[in-house]
Amino acid sequence: MKLLSLSDQVLEFIYSPSVRNRFADVDLVLGCGDLPYFYLEYLVDQVGKPVFYVRGNHAATVEYSQGAERRGPWGAVDLHRRTVNHQGLLMAGFEGSVRYRQGPFMYTQSEMWGMVLNMAPRLVANRLRYGRSLDLLATHAPPWGIQDQDDPAHQGFKAFRWLLNVFKPRYHFHGHIHVYSKETPVLTRFRDTLVINTYGYRETNLHLHPLPRPSRETHPAV
Length: 222
Known about the structure:
Distance between the termini: 31 Å
Mean pLDDT: 92
Number of domains: 1
Oligomer: single chain
Order of helices and strands: EHEHEEEEEEEEHEHEEEE
């Protein structure tokens, strides 16, 4: 299964008619936040494959385009606080970033702990039914201490790190951390999970067994 993931940047070559041929072989699209709703809607129309998303901390509460009011991209599936089985791929997601000012789609560490713990029974149910809890976690913010940064706006969530430890998804896709240097880590193996910063866009062939090794690997402290 091939996945096109995106976050944080509107790219001209994607927001153009050429996207239909460029990504004709992808099986699904994943938006990891801070993308306009019209951008994801365009991919729904042009790529013609299922589109899933979570909102970033800069998402609009309401977006107006083409004379209509939108509270989310039409035709796409919001993964926030949901578990989804898409053709055997077990997915879950959480929107937003750590709260560093007032505004929507930002959460304290405690608030995110509450949301993650609320999802835990469904992940346990997945384990009982499918033999595994989760294949793919989609978030906007990264996990605590993995590809995050020290400033308050770009710290990761501690609850995400706990989720990776306990439920062991094969992949964790996130955005939020802009990549301006080759020194910025974008692929990190954390125990059983490949953590992927999908700033801009990335194409990924999903392999559930066994997990491929990243080209650049780090080992954050437990």
